[in-house]
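Form 12-C: Joint structure prediction
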Amino acid sequence: MASYRDVAELIRQDVAAGTWAADRPIPGIDKLRDRYGVARETAHRAVKALVAEGLLYSIPRRGTYIRPPLPAPTRIRDRQAYRDEIGYFFDLGAQDWRAVGPAIPPQVGVPPSDVADVLGVARKDHVMVRDRAIGPPDADLPEQLATSYLPMPLVGQLPILGAPNTGPGGIYDRIEEHFGKAIEWEETVSARPATAHEQQALRIGSGLPVLIITRTSRIDDHQVVEVNQTRMAADRYSVSYGVRRSESAVFPRPSAA
Amino acid sequence: MASYRDVAELIRQDVAAGTWAADRPIPGIDKLRDRYGVARETAHRAVKALVAEGLLYSIPRRGTYIRPPLPAPTRIRDRQAYRDEIGYFFDLGAQDWRAVGPAIPPQVGVPPSDVADVLGVARKDHVMVRDRAIGPPDADLPEQLATSYLPMPLVGQLPILGAPNTGPGGIYDRIEEHFGKAIEWEETVSARPATAHEQQALRIGSGLPVLIITRTSRIDDHQVVEVNQTRMAADRYSVSYGVRRSESAVFPRPSAA
DNA sequence: CAGTGGTCTAGACCACAAC
DNA sequence: TTGTGGTCTAGACCACTGA
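Section 2 - Result
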């Protein structure tokens, strides 16, 4: 009796050995049941485990396919704040990206609690939420989901932040004009399993993670004027930054406790 | 007939409603079967899905528990290159971290293919591999797994890079002394599902991702002298960087195709 | 209409943990 | 000894795809 882990390992080996063409479905679950001499459920469980692992992906009622080995040069970007005639972007490869799919008008709602904390509002407070799915100009499906959160007091002073169209330079130019000062950005990168909605919108395999860039915009180094969360498939994106050298050549080591 | 997704949703609601204490096991699979009136397999499948999602975690033969809502302030760090009397570190919160568990002597081996590419060596070439599990001084389990890859030609010129102990300032000081130039660092953040080994070593729930920081060390802005990969549980860590403003105020937009 | 991935059921074991 | 999570089996449907 072979366990589903054993079967998964056998399938892994068959995939590595090139037993099946990469662009065609691998044998169906009933075929795999015969091939490895196990119950159908067991074969299915093995396939499901490999799907969760990212080696395979399944399209219901069509077949199970081998996931191409990560479109080799997983796109990497040196994150900086770039500006062109139209607005800001933080990724040289995404300068001409635009909103994909139906436009979602800005709404007022409750942000995720981690965003609320950074934004400095209470967990249940309302904020302005600007949601977009973005991708290359000719794409019909988005590559990333970007959500911008703005504190209501600021929107009260600057109502255009709640408008569908915020004009050239977007919200960042409006905010800098309003304060007469430059915005400073900090980005935090995190990851978690993709939600069902993200799996669907970004074509993420079941069980695979999303990479999340949380960008905090500040004025005067402390007042948070915006928090932006951009989500993308972790198997298609990674994010790169230059690392600066701390200014003190030798950093004092805390005395032992 | 309720599907396992329905049951999972019901369990989600029960967890959110606080039906079960957070620090004690939730009812066993057989209890859940009765509670929701489904087959045992179905109840088990629902639990397994929630474990993969990160809401629950199971300890075989002991019970299934509610995962505590991420130790609130998921540690965030402003990544910089810091230096103290002992050596370099890139995270202010990890200045006093040390190797945890058995010391692994430096070895010669084949690096992952993405590392080989960055390092500029062929996919099958050998490099020097320095592997460490690190964590706080009093911890018995590591928080992060750090692996350093060095090109063999450099190790030939600087044999100390293959020694267990590389002296004060570690490999970075040795390399800077050798070249008489400063190292420049770039970090790339990515994520993928944790391997079985990482799940065990870092206590990562099944199906949850690891966050990977790949740090590339260069001399003269082009020669790669080291690649370091640090892996950590994505539900316990995130990484932050300052974003600098691109030097050209307005970045030219490529002409339309 | 046949083949597909996906699902549910009912029943049976297993190895280990806690008592 | 009892309860636990985990696993395997055999059989049955289902909704949909693609020929």
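Section 3 - Comments
Chain B touches chain A through 53 residues (CB under 8 Å). Chain B has a mean pLDDT of 89.
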